[in-house]
Specification:
402 residues; alpha+beta; 15% helix; globular
């Protein structure tokens, strides 16, 4: 996962929505297609869906997408947006009836001048001042699909997935509460079962610079690009803090000061590496809420003495420290703003993801409309499956017995 300057291929926001948690009916219709530019290059992470209904998904790394609708949405509008391109709209029924499901987005040239008088850090300061007004700052519920991969000795050895009910107040505040409604895990191949002190969801929150006071003077700021998104020009500003080898990158609406996307990386000398991405999406009123997140933390841990001795007895050479990492990917599946509709089911608490004793519901995981597999997901699962050539679905079947 690396930051890139190829901003035309970045999604400002992405959303993955769930039509039905448990069952499919005969009314369900699969909307499936692909998104490319005029040069026939795929456009990854384009926002695809029926925004007013909170139904949709995003394109994969290969530009493909798929999601479920019902017959009630056939006369609505399918909308496809990506940074640097004109927004594409088409009637849902018309798209389904098309033989060619390949959509070509036209590149959008920004109206901003190359020379902008305002200093780069002022764009970030203004965006932070307007953060509360530009985001959903009242209690709202997010249905979250949280994925964590545990990596030891540079290979993924364990995977756990939670479906979470979270009450949030937006990035200008903190989560009010959360509960784990469903859980599933892979086979256990770790030899160091390191437990985090709190749920990984809380680390996602605590590491988000938007939820902190950014020390602006500590960074060297510069404008690195300009682009557009969904009819608005955006400016991309980067700040670097040398003594922590830290970088922050903001994707900011020029007229609204909305922060659509935030990327960060940090590699302190002799410290632990950290990279993260936060993507925000508009609700019907144009207020932003979290839509997608991924991050990776990497460091090392002392090799356990009991395992060291066993391996040395077998003639193996064991290092003093073993590389350790956590990889995370988070999708907001659904947004609910009506407090009367909030779902408080599930197990509450704030502990390592493995400590939640949630009964395994195979029907739920079979019927949930999962988001498309990203390259991040595929990489981690491939590493996990390669250990003993056991497919992930087989691992789920035998590792989640109640």
């Amino acid at each position: 996962m690396k930051l890139t300057n190829n901003n035309t291929n970045f999604l400002i926001f992405t959303s993955f929505f769930l039509f039905s948690f448990f069952t499919y009916s005969q009314e369900n219709i699969l909307v499936k297609g692909s998104v490319f530019d005029k040069n026939n290059y795929e456009i990854p992470y384009a926002a695809v869906g029926i925004v007013k209904k909170y139904i949709g998904t995003s394109s994969t790394d290969e530009g493909t997408f798929s999601f479920i609708i019902t017959t009630k949405e056939l006369d609505d509008t399918l909308k496809i947006s990506s940074i640097g391109f004109d927004t594409f709209k088409i009637n849902v029924r018309d798209f389904i009836n098309r033989n060619d499901k390949k959509i070509i987005l036209k590149e959008k040239l920004t109206q901003l001048n190359e020379v902008i008088v305002v200093s780069p850090d002022n764009y970030v300061k203004t965006a932070m001042k307007k953060l509360k007004n530009n985001t959903i700052s009242k209690n709202h519920q997010l249905k979250i699909l949280y994925r964590r991969w545990s990596v030891e000795d540079n290979i993924c050895r364990y995977y756990i997935e939670h479906f979470i009910n979270a009450i949030d107040r937006g990035p200008s505040s903190y989560l009010s509460s959360f509960s784990v409604e469903h859980s599933r895990k892979s086979s256990e191949y770790r030899f160091i079962k390191n437990e985090q002190k709190i749920h990984a969801l809380k680390y996602m929150e605590l590491n988000n610079p938007l939820r902190k006071n950014i020390p602006f003077k500590d960074y060297n700021w510069k404008k690195i690009n300009i682009s557009s998104y969904d009819g608005e020009d955006i400016i991309i500003v980067e700040g670097k803090r040398s003594y922590l080898n830290e970088r922050l990158r903001f994707y900011i609406g020029f007229d609204t000061s909305r922060i659509y996307k935030l990327e960060m990386s940090k590699v302190p000398k002799g410290g632990k590496a950290f990279e993260a991405t936060y993507i925000y999406k508009k609700n019907k009123e144009g207020k932003l809420y979290l839509s997608y997140h991924n991050r990776e933390w990497s460091g090392s841990i002392k090799f356990p003495e009991n395992i060291r001795k066993r391996k040395e007895d077998m003639g193996e050479k064991v290092p003093n420290y073993v590389p350790l990492a956590y990889r995370h990917e988070v999708f907001v599946i659904n947004l609910e703003e009506n407090k009367n509709m909030f779902d408080y089911s599930g197990i509450s608490g704030n502990m390592d993801m493995t400590l939640y004793k949630v009964p395994y519901d195979s029907v739920f995981w079979k019927n949930i409309s999962l988001p498309p597999e990203t390259s991040f997901f595929k990489k981690n699962i491939k590493e996990l499956e390669s250990l003993y050539d056991v497919p992930i679905e087989t691992q789920f079947r035998y590792s989640n017995r109640n």
